[in-house]
Specification:
mainly alpha, Arc Repressor Mutant, subunit A, 3 domains, single chain
Length: 224
């Protein structure tokens, strides 16, 4: 790739691919430059150092997280769409949860815009600005937790090794003392088949939104 074709977006996408496949430690100016077939100096036109590159990755990957405060749908439906989008981006880029913890994400326009949009929805729900920010952080951390704790094999497990991993996990649980851990033994059966990831994530989003809806209901006057 020539320097003329090199843009912030292409650099960020390359860095994200590296982070997703090899981890954040693999992301350096020198390595990303090599992947693009240019010298490190070519990247300095866009990112002066690694910190700026990491922020650029966050800004790029969250660019599609938007909510329209003026849309006609109820706030619950619009908020759900935001959460589903964040979860979708994290599923596509498994490095994102760690990346969000590695930088000051509030320094990126995409994150700030997404937070601003979410606050607008949450004030529609009856929360104060401060409460809305607490809720927004609860949702973000809930998305991170859902992706980081997803069921099934650890990330990076080769597909042909997944059945064996599940078999060993099932056996580990089934051999626990039945008088002390009966529910864990019952859980072992869930490792017989590959988990339904779409069902899992839909359940997680339902759980997150239900918590916000319950808290919003407590804010409204009248019988509960």
């Amino acid at each position: 790739m020539t320097q003329e074709r090199l843009t912030k977006a292409t650099v960020a996408e390359c860095a994200l691919r590296l982070a997703d496949t090899e981890g954040l430690d693999a992301v350096t100016i020198r390595r990303v430059a090599k992947e693009n077939g240019v010298t490190p100096m070519a990247l300095y036109w866009h990112f002066k150092n690694k910190d700026e590159l990491l922020l650029g990755m966050v800004d790029h990957v969250l660019s599609g997280v938007r909510a329209d405060p003026e849309a006609g749908n109820p706030w619950q439906k619009r908020l759900r769409k935001v959460v589903e989008t964040v979860v979708g981006v994290m599923r596509e880029h498994p490095s994102l949860p760690g990346l969000l913890n590695a930088v000051d994400k509030t320094r990126t326009e995409s994150f700030t815009r997404a937070t601003n949009d979410t606050l607008a929805l949450l004030t529609d729900a009856g929360f104060t600005i401060e409460e809305g920010y607490w809720v927004a952080m609860y949702l973000l951390n809930g998305c991170i937790g859902a992706v980081s704790g997803q069921p099934g094999c650890p990330p990076g497990t080769p597909a042909d090794q997944e059945p064996e991993w599940r078999r060993r996990k099932r056996l580990d649980l089934e051999t626990l003392p039945s008088d002390r851990f009966p529910m864990m033994i019952e859980l072992a059966a869930s490792y017989r088949d590959e988990p339904d990831m779409d069902r899992y994530y839909a359940f997680c989003v339902d759980l997150l939104i239900a918590g916000v809806e319950s808290a919003a209901a407590l804010k409204r006057p009248g019988p509960r």
